[in-house]
Amino acid sequence: MPTILGQNQYGKAENRVVKITRDGGTHHIKDLNVSVALSGDLDEVHYSGSNAHVLPTDTTKNTVFAFAKEQGIESAEQFGIALARHFVDSTEPITTARIRIEEYAWDRIGTSDGETRAAHSFVRNGGETRTAQITYDGGRLQVLSGLKGLTVLNSTDSEFWGYIKDKYTTLKEDYDRILATEVSAVWRHNWSGEERGAPAPDWQESYEETRKLMLRAFAGTYSLSLQQTLYQMGSQVIDGRPELEEIRFSMPNKHHFKVDLEPFGLKNEAADGAVYIAADRPYGLIEATVLRDGAEARIPLDMTNL
Amino acid sequence: MPTILGQNQYGKAENRVVKITRDGGTHHIKDLNVSVALSGDLDEVHYSGSNAHVLPTDTTKNTVFAFAKEQGIESAEQFGIALARHFVDSTEPITTARIRIEEYAWDRIGTSDGETRAAHSFVRNGGETRTAQITYDGGRLQVLSGLKGLTVLNSTDSEFWGYIKDKYTTLKEDYDRILATEVSAVWRHNWSGEERGAPAPDWQESYEETRKLMLRAFAGTYSLSLQQTLYQMGSQVIDGRPELEEIRFSMPNKHHFKVDLEPFGLKNEAADGAVYIAADRPYGLIEATVLRDGAEARIPLDMTNL
Amino acid sequence: MPTILGQNQYGKAENRVVKITRDGGTHHIKDLNVSVALSGDLDEVHYSGSNAHVLPTDTTKNTVFAFAKEQGIESAEQFGIALARHFVDSTEPITTARIRIEEYAWDRIGTSDGETRAAHSFVRNGGETRTAQITYDGGRLQVLSGLKGLTVLNSTDSEFWGYIKDKYTTLKEDYDRILATEVSAVWRHNWSGEERGAPAPDWQESYEETRKLMLRAFAGTYSLSLQQTLYQMGSQVIDGRPELEEIRFSMPNKHHFKVDLEPFGLKNEAADGAVYIAADRPYGLIEATVLRDGAEARIPLDMTNL
Amino acid sequence: MPTILGQNQYGKAENRVVKITRDGGTHHIKDLNVSVALSGDLDEVHYSGSNAHVLPTDTTKNTVFAFAKEQGIESAEQFGIALARHFVDSTEPITTARIRIEEYAWDRIGTSDGETRAAHSFVRNGGETRTAQITYDGGRLQVLSGLKGLTVLNSTDSEFWGYIKDKYTTLKEDYDRILATEVSAVWRHNWSGEERGAPAPDWQESYEETRKLMLRAFAGTYSLSLQQTLYQMGSQVIDGRPELEEIRFSMPNKHHFKVDLEPFGLKNEAADGAVYIAADRPYGLIEATVLRDGAEARIPLDMTNL
Fold first, then answer.
1. Catalytic residue among C30, C61, C255, C256
2. D42 to chain A: closest CA residue
3. Which of B263, B264, B280 sits opposite D281 (nearest CB)?
4. pTM: predicted TM-score of the whole model, two decimal places
């Protein structure tokens, strides 16, 4: 046979599970998009179509919803760990499970001009999407947390100059520009679930503090390049969160070009408060990993398809 | 000639204008998407291709950016009014201008665990998009404000029963369901810019209070149908905001179906905190106008293409 | 009561119905997205939440799928007519029904280098989406057919000059430019189902010929403005298709800007075959109706939300 | 320093370049979306913000457009190779360049009912998007060709049964179902540009024949699982195209569920031509690589983010 099967995986993607928890009249909501990918002894289904080793993707869907009821959803990470362990531990031919989760945040609706908040009425917080990826191979767990769609902008304290000029370079140096990006980031926890007595991180606190460190580094860096800002964001996260080993960013440079208003007799200087056009395409795209010294890089490089 | 020209309009759509205003070291940001549509004495360009009456769409784009500098952007409504008046008043063949604006909100990045906020660093607030539409015919102004993408959910206090049952009806009555929708709304101000001495509304306050009234009506209505909730939202807005004449809603019913977990020996009752699947398509779609008694309905009916 | 209810409608949107018809081993496929909107005596559901006059949107969904089986889908128009009549004629409080349909085309997969085509294997034709809208008020039918997403481009035979120049005009006149647009069009049939003995149009032939006339008018018009091209497309359709009364277009000007390559010592003239950048936003947007002389304009103006 | 920099790359993404070639009155069009990613000696820009080793992303954009003029675009692969070589060979600190390209196809507009085709008027072929990825490290070239958005459907000759049943399994076995998927595929050429006298493949022919082999394998496989169909598609490609070493697929199972019409007294059997609902989410997702025996797997595993 001149062809063989390489890496393969299958599962049910984008299970949109919403769990309401009632605490008397006060409700809590968890809103996830869960994708399951399983690997293992699956050659035969490819070669002959025998499904003897195949747990149907429909079953993996049912499992997601049943687990939400049986075990609850404390966090995306905890939920993904429970699912990943289940698929590998309970299905003989499955040797690896990868669970990817997107989480959408909801805020309580304010019901007065004070701080009163509704007990069971929510408005979706349209900010960034929180992500998690849990991989389990029967021994170790790998937990990646992250976010995407976190759009940030500095309206000053950004410069860009001193770069290589070749025959195709026309860009003018800029000593006061807008720096804006839509952050996608994935960070890896050092906890693997294997060490005796090593408790899992507090996933919620870890997420909130990591997000805070990224935002503050973005705001606090006087930037000579988006790469520099990215590195500051990454190193301040790694410095500040001992539970993390590495972080990878994909950061498009959301260009805001100063509009040329001279033809209309108008000055348009950053220093006076300028008018910009927010451009769509093309855009700079900066991607990099920042690691704790000595750590191994394990986060996949491709966070985008472009 | 057996065919004639009917209603027509043209302009530049989706001008993405960002204006930074500097107040010492503190910056303010306005982030708009502005679309221009002009009508008038334009038969000839259709019949013969003569552009003698055509102000190029490129010029309308330039005007948007130049006005952002010359006049500033106090609000989407003020900015749209200035643009609409300009096109009609300064270009002979143009008799009507319609300006549509989307506005994206930004929050300041928090720089400490207290209340300290960055002076020129922002994170995009991913919530609803604010909208405005200004139409000017040389005399009256019509100002529609609105929003889209405001997603809300009540996890209880919603029932649905007592409906018509025909031969195609299989739906079970439900006495405790999730009610969720993504609100699109457009409301019309009674101010037309014509009355001597009648000041324009405070657009910012009007928007904020209208949004608040909608959210509170959504949270506060014990709902027997999404139509009832919609009407409560509309009538509480009209009651509470004397500057408004009518409001129109387009509200998809974002279905959250309770998952059948009985095959797995699990109960899944709303009262205990249930697991739902958030469905994509199809979805109920409820659209209606609510008016002040005696007002004329002028908001266009079609807010969606489906 | 200070507020009243205005126009309102409700129904199930985006029912994704696929019907396979078997003719021996040869299969045929119809792939539709059907949206139902019903109006009538529905005040009470808004005022008090009483659903006594409400046919559930879930029932309208069931009806769509059951009708696909009971009546088959000969064309989107025929299917929409059957549905619209059913809802009004069989449900007392419902007085108007509007059915909107998107249709996706599939081609048979070629199974040899000749003309042999698979009997039950299809590849989706990713071209334009065909649309239909049927409205029935218990008496007349109004049938709008149409399409969207038909992207066309002339690489020459397009000029733009002789326009108004005001103080914000910087655009250079152009005597050889690319003209590209993504056509959305809706056309109205004069058949209303009321005239005794007047047979319905052949919807399939009418669609194909109308599309052909539009494409040929686009290709065949030496264009001095996109408006002129639009009018030629409309008038050649109305001239050529006696069953149609009016047609409305929404045509964004998909700008292809010649890139300035002079800084690199390169000429970039249209006459030599030029390099263009395909721009996203902003874009010109041209909308107009073309009517048969004497016909009434009844197609809604808003085909887009920007 | 407790943190270090890992893998990193930067460049300009989504350069939308359109090239018209004139051959007398007959024009040809190439329509690409080109993304550049560069790696090399770039630590310093991350650590200190020094741009001394940075070729601006704006320059990479200019280079794309200038090369389209200087060298023309024979194919996406040839164009990507020229760009990749240029960036590495002409910019000292850059050691690796990766060029990703999407290509959009256009057909000539038919101008008569015969076979006459317009010389410079085109309609966009909305089918699949063709892709290419070229990586150059100063020595070897790696060329991946591919496509995405190729949606195919078999209306019979698909079964699914004999799978694992655990406590969460409710799926009924099916002996006549619709099999539909939206194919994303990437295949790797064995040509690396290093072998003396080894000519590059005919990229156009290679693409067309590979696509044909995939379609025919999809249509011709009586399927017991989507995995089996995938493997047949891959192995028939590898068997039929000696210039290829491996191919990777990402194939969502676009579920078409037979609608339960029994409540309405209707049978809905596949054998009679059934009615299906085309579901959105969740969906099965099948991914696998097929290789020539002895070849190394080098195509990245992640072709999707879910």
1. C255
2. A227
3. B280
4. 0.97
Say whether B48 and C228 touch across the interface (CB within 8 A).
yes
| D105-132 average pLDDT score | 93
Please report which confidence band the pLDDT of residue C34 belongs to, taking 50, 70 and 90 as the band edges: very high
d(CA B231, CA B289): 8
pLDDT > 90? residue A114: no
Distance CA B231, CA B248 (A): 10
Residue with tokens 């059957």: C82
A91/D164 touch (CB, cutoff 8 Å), yes or no: yes
Catalytic residue among B57, B91, B96, B289: B57
**CA pair distance D244, D201, nearest whole angstrom:** 10
The arithmetic mean of pLDDT across residues C60-65, rounded, is 98
Closest to B134 (Cα-Cα) out of B7, B294, B8, B11: B11
Q: Most confidently modeled of A35-39, A125-129, B123-127?
A: A35-39
pLDDT, tens only, D257-266? 999 999 999 9
- Report residue D223's pLDDT band, with 50, 70 and 90 as the boundaries: very high
Amino acid at D284: G
CB contact under 8 A, C109 and D65: no
ipTM: 0.96
Minimum CA–CA partner of A170 in chain C: C263
CA distance A14 to A57: 11
pLDDT band at A22 (very low <50, low <70, confident <90, very high): very high
Residue D1 pLDDT exceeds 60: no
Q: How many residues does chain C have?
A: 306
Number of neighbours of residue D23 by Cβ within 10 angstroms? 9
Contact C34, C17 (CB under 8 A): yes
Closest by alpha carbon to B283, among B259, B240, B251?
B251
Interface partners of D (3+ CB pairs, < 8 Å)?
A: A, B, C
Q: Which of B183, B231, B237, B245 shows the shortest CA–CA distance to B212? A: B237
By Cβ distance, the residue of B168, B170, B263 closest to D170 is: B263
| Backbone φ and ψ of D160, nearest 5° | -155, 110
Q: How far is B66 from chain C (nearest CA, A)?
A: 8
Sequence-ordered alpha helix ranges (H) in chain C: 43-47, 57-70, 76-90, 203-220, 226-240
CB A110 within 8 A of CB A43: no
Rounded average pLDDT over A225-231: 98
Nearest CA in chain B to D278: B281
- Would you say residue C306 has pLDDT above 70? no
The Cα-based distances of D3 to A104, A220, A292, B54, D194 in angstroms read: 31, 19, 4, 60, 38
CB-based contacts of C208, cutoff 8 Å, min separation 6: none
User: Residue C220 — left, alpha, or beta (φ > 0 → left; ψ -120 to 50 → alpha)?
Assistant: alpha
Paired tokens of C22? 């078997």
Interface size between A and C, measured as CB pairs under 8 A: 9
B255 is catalytic: yes
- Spatial separation of the C-alpha atoms in residues A233 and A186, rounded to whole Å: 12
Cα D94 to Cα D84: distance, rounded to the nearest angstrom? 10
Contacts of A281 in chain C (CB under 8 A): 280
The one-character DSSP state at A219 is: H
> CA B213, B215, B216: angle at the middle one, nearest 5?
65
Q: What is the mean pLDDT of each run of 10 residues along chain B (306 residues)?
A: 92 98 97 98 98 98 98 98 98 98 97 89 95 97 97 98 98 98 98 90 98 98 98 98 97 98 98 98 98 96 70
Smallest Cα distance from A20 to chain D, Å: 20
Dihedral angle sign, alpha carbons of residues D110, D112, D117, D120: negative
Catalytic site residue from C27, C28, C53, C57:
C57
Question: What would the pLDDT profile of D71-112 be if each residue is shown by its tens digit?
Answer: 999 999 999 999 999 999 999 999 999 999 999 999 999 998
